[in-house]
């Protein structure tokens, strides 16, 4: 980046920091601010900055951000509670998410988007993960019932890690078709899906054991524990990649093991994610607005926008509604859960990594569809979060009964 660009980016972060408390009670969300800032500052014909990031630097930023998101999201999930109490996210993840991918694949195949079947499935899988941060007020509002907030939070924390193997499989199939080398890509997919989880389990377990042992002896401080947690996340990725496994799957599985072995002692990791880690997340949204969004907007195709709207509405709401059948959950709650499935950070990172590593017939179309969907979601879910949370939370239909019929 040029010096002027770096100064402008620093000023955007500075300005956000100065009004961050004010924004926390406003309709405008941080992702909206950084997407608009990136677009306005650099869009052709509008901005005055020339934002250019070398490919290896962009890849490094994306990898660090995704590793941090996958590891920390997984570490937050209490598997024991998920098995016993969280029936809403169980249904949404085990039934709703596969249905979302199936419906998305069918719609993307039917619409004249110019995609192959594998690419249609890939787009549906990339857009399956949700990002609760785009409607943060919903999962933090006192008015929204606790089961609903837990459901959205747990779903958002797990669905990116669950979607990743599916994305890798579809990308591998598309790559095999393009290169006409089915055996090599099958072997690649098997190695990715095998050594990734194994590396994550081993390193997550070892890291948790080390922290517990050092803590019992009083050797490690809270800040030291935070450093160890970040090193464990990085080691999961590096060791898995060295063994030809998938480092991102390793980071997710490692976080799941690490967090559940330490239970409530991961607060140091969460504090980092909510402060320093936010720089990576918001930086990604700035890059999205500066580099990726103009590409999607200036390659305008009305069918991309039609698919994006379907993806955020019917393709999400209907599977969620069907997944909750058999529970005494009213329609208002079902629609609320269905609508607040924003597409954000994970979808951006996944599509960039896929089109960078895999050979696809139509990578630009895949990327532009995802970027348009994320754009609509950032603003539609961001602007609707506060009013809908207040309206739904204050209604007589808000509190669901979670007992099965």
What do these coordinates show?
The protein is mostly helical. It has one domain: Up-down Bundle (Na+/H+ antiporter like fold), CATH 1.20.1530.20. Helices cover 77% and strands 0% of the residues. It has helices spanning 3-23, 30-42, 55-76, 79-84, 87-110, 117-126, 136-140, 146-179, 182-216, 222-242, 247-262, 267-274, 276-297, 302-312, 314-323, 331-339, 345-357, 363-393. It is globular, with a radius of gyration of 21 Å. 47% of the residues are buried. Mean pLDDT is 83; it is low at 401-405.
Keywords:
0% strand, mainly alpha, Na+/H+ antiporter like fold, 405 residues, 18 helices
What can be said about this structure in brief?
With 405 residues, the chain is mostly helical. Helix content is 77%, strand content 0%.
Question: Helices and strands in order, then pairings?
Answer:
Elements: H1 3-23, H2 30-42, H3 55-76, H4 79-84, H5 87-110, H6 117-126, H7 136-140, H8 146-179, H9 182-216, H10 222-242, H11 247-262, H12 267-274, H13 276-297, H14 302-312, H15 314-323, H16 331-339, H17 345-357, H18 363-393
Helix pairs in contact: 1-2, 2-13, 3-8, 3-10, 3-11, 3-13, 3-17, 5-6, 5-8, 5-15, 6-8, 6-18, 8-9, 9-10, 9-11, 10-11, 13-18, 14-15, 14-18, 15-16, 17-18
Which secondary-structure class do the elements indicate? mainly alpha
- CATH top level is Mainly Alpha
Helix share bin:
over 70%
Tell me the domain tally: 1
Radius of gyration: 21 Å
Strand fraction equals under 5%
Distance between the termini: 59 Å
Secondary-structure element sequence?
HHHHHHHHHHHHHHHHHH
Per the CATH scheme, the topology name is Na+/H+ antiporter like fold
Major sheet size, sense and barrel closure: none
Rough outline: globular
């Amino acid at each position: 980046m040029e010096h002027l660009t770096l100064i402008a980016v620093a000023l955007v972060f500075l300005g956000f920091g100065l009004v961050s408390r004010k924004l926390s009670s406003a309709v405008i969300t941080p992702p909206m601010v950084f997407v608009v800032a990136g677009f306005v500052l650099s869009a052709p014909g509008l901005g005055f900055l020339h934002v250019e990031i070398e490919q290896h630097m962009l890849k490094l930023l994306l990898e660090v951000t995704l590793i941090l998101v996958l590891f920390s999201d997984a570490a937050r999930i209490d598997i024991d509670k998920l098995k016993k109490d969280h029936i809403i996210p169980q249904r949404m993840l085990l039934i709703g998410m596969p249905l979302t991918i199936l419906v998305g694949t069918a719609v993307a195949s039917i619409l004249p988007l110019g995609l192959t079947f594998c690419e249609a499935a890939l787009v549906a899988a990339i857009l399956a993960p949700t990002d609760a941060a785009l409607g943060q007020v919903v999962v933090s509002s006192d008015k929204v019932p606790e089961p609903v907030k837990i459901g959205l939070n747990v779903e958002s924390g797990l669905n990116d890690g669950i979607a990743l193997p599916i994305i890798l499989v579809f990308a591998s199939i598309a790559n095999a078709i393009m290169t006409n080398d089915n055996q090599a890509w099958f072997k690649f997919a098997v190695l990715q899906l095998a050594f990734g989880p194994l590396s994550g389990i081993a390193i997550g377990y070892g890291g948790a054991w080390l922290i517990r042992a050092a803590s019992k002896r009083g050797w490690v401080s809270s800040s030291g524990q935070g450093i160890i947690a970040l090193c464990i996340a990085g080691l999961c990725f590096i060791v898995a990649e060295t063994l030809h496994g998938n480092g991102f799957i390793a980071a997710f599985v490692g976080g799941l093991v690490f967090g559940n072995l330490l239970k409530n002692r991961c607060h140091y990791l969460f504090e980092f994610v909510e402060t320093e880690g936010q720089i990576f997340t918001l930086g990604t949204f700035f890059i999205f607005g500066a580099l990726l969004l103009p590409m999607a907007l200036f390659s305008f195709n009305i069918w991309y926008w039609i698919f994006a709207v379907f993806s955020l509405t019917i393709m999400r709401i209907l599977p969620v509604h069907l997944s909750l059948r058999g529970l005494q959950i009213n329609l208002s709650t079902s629609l609320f859960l269905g609508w607040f499935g924003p597409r954000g950070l994970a979808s951006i990172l996944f599509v960039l990594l896929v089109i960078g590593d895999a050979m696809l017939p139509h990578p630009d179309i895949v990327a532009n569809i995802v970027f348009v969907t994320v754009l609509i979601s950032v603003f539609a879910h961001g602007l609707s979060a506060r009013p809908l949370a207040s309206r739904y939370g204050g209604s007589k239909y808000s509190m669901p009964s979670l007992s099965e019929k």
